[in-house]
Design goal:
4 domains; nitrogen fixation; Rossmann fold; alpha/beta; nucleotide-binding; single chain; five-stranded parallel β-sheet; ATP binding; 46% helix; Helicase, Ruva Protein, domain 3
Length: 483
């Protein structure tokens, strides 16, 4: 026999299939339906691995886990659960479980995990101490029980007690910042600050000052010393949102910080040591940007230590019900009247494609609660709101299909830009910044359409060829001539 596995679950069917799978894989298996028997076996030194459900008739595994770890600190404990929430995964990790498996799970995957558990030394946290999270008192930062979200939960649970850099990729509105906050708030840096900066919302000429701070007199308008986001995030987490929009010169400085662990303020002369965890996010294909010469490949590999893809809502439609309930509770706490979404309305939501992702769903629930006096929300009401909101929420798709003018697309983008500042306004000089931002993608798209032919691109743009060459050089564009 490869080893002995203790299986605990109050569901006889689960006990049977798990026992059969592990037995076929060569393990000696003992099964029980209650926690007291499991505890007696563990305390007696029996079993090499434990596979147990969380909820059993006589006890909760999370209450039992600390005792099991105290008497058998090297015993791998694999947690099964049908609750399938983010907090279940986190509690399993914080209580010292070797692995968390949401039900239903693949039996081949289970036997593989059991094999690794027997072969590996138990992974220990830095100080061996964990702090339990009470799901009754802690807000749920992430919602959903779909297989796609279970994968996210399991990666996050493994990353909580590490400082590894995480790169989150996903469409707008999928919850990338929520993931970054969860990594911080449930990790070992939770007592430090969480500082977020959106690269797309900061003028290019101010990004280095925003990141690293500046000294008095470093540039025109620098009337006093200013702290940067790295300094503000010391001993905490720095979230670099929309990292794909970071200009090349700022990328170079960021790479140097990641390599050397220190930086200098703009206008400063003394290096400053930094101790922050970096979490970055983007809705762009960084590989494509690398090929276009717009993103540093070495920086990409520094950031992409742990890649994490946030699925769009259309790939996790089974989570609609949980998300709707979550947002209904949220808006009620904000003072809006409670509503009930009828099953037909939920079904309609589950068949919608959600171009704006979870953010669009939240906005829909907010509108339904704010604008309609009915206590029950029907499918007809939802259909009307989805039809009305389609244009605003799906602006990028409409633009691709020729259903939106360039002017409308710019207006849509600028509305999002102003909203990103909340109650504040952008820094002065917006007009020139917007024109400069539009020039690069305009030239890039034209060159792509002409397959790198600069003569034809200049004609299309109405520019002198030398002027086009100058602008290509200014923007650092890589031009590849196609057939």
């Amino acid at each position: 026999m490869k080893g002995s596995v203790l299986v605990a679950d109050d569901d006889a069917a689960i006990r049977t299939v798990v026992s059969q799978a592990l037995s076929r894989a060569g393990y000696d298996v003992r099964v029980t339906s209650n926690a007291s028997t499991l505890w007696r076996w563990v305390a007696a030194g029996e079993g090499d691995v434990v596979v147990s459900d969380v909820v059993m008739p006589d006890d909760n595994l999370f209450d039992l886990l600390p005792r099991m770890r105290k008497v058998r600190p090297d015993l791998p404990i694999i947690v099964m659960s049908a609750q399938n929430t983010f907090m279940t995964a986190i509690r399993a990790s914080e209580k010292g479980a070797y692995e968390y498996l949401p039900k239903p799970f693949d039996l081949v995957e289970l036997t593989g995990i059991v094999g690794r558990a027997l072969a590996e030394s138990r992974r220990k946290n830095g100080d061996g101490q964990t702090q339990a999270v009470n799901p009754e008192t802690e807000g749920m930062p992430l919602v959903g029980r779909s297989p796609a979200m279970q994968d996210i939960y399991r990666v996050l649970a493994r990353m909580m007690q590490s400082d590894l850099t995480v790169l989150i990729n996903g469409e707008s509105g999928t919850g990338k910042e929520l993931v970054a906050r969860a990594l911080h708030e449930y990790g070992k840096r939770k007592n430090g600050p969480f500082v977020a900066i959106n690269m797309a919302a900061i003028p290019r000429d101010l990004i280095e000052s925003e990141l690293f701070g500046h000294e008095k007199g470093a540039f025109t308008g620098a009337q006093a010393r200013s702290t940067g986001r790295f300094e503000q995030a010391e001993n905490g987490t720095l979230f670099l949102d929309e990292i794909g929009d970071m200009p090349m010169d700022a990328q170079t400085r960021l790479l140097r910080v990641l390599q050397q662990g220190e930086y200098m303020t703009v206008g400063g002369r003394t290096p400053i040591k930094t101790n922050v965890r970096i979490v970055a996010a983007t809705n762009k294909d960084l590989r494509a940007l690398i090929n276009q010469g717009l993103f540093r490949e070495d920086l990409y590999y520094r950031l992409n230590v742990v890649p994490l893809r946030m699925p769009p809502l259309r790939e996790r439609l089974e989570d609609i019900g949980d998300l709707v309930q979550h947002f209904l509770v949220k808006v009620q706490e904000e003072g809006l009247e409670a509503k009930r979404i009828l099953p037909e309305a939920l079904q309609l939501m589950s068949s919608y494609h959600w171009p704006g992702n979870v953010r669009e769903l939240e906005n829909l629930i907010r509108r339904l609660c704010a604008l309609y006096p009915q206590e029950e929300i029907t499918a007809e009401i939802v259909a009307a709101e989805l039809d009305a909101g389609e244009g605003a929420e799906s602006a990028p798709a409409d633009l691709l299909h020729g259903e939106m003018t360039i002017a409308q697309a710019v207006e849509h983008n600028m509305q999002d830009y102003f909203r990103s500042f909340g109650d504040s306004l952008p820094p002065p000089g917006l007009y020139q910044r917007v024109l400069a931002e539009m020039e690069q993608p305009l030239i890039l798209a034209t060159l792509a359409a002409t397959r790198g032919n600069q003569i034809r691109a200049a004609e299309v743009l109405g520019l002198n060829r030398n002027t086009l060459r100058k602008k290509i050089k200014e923007h650092g564009l890589s031009v590849f001539k196609g057939g």
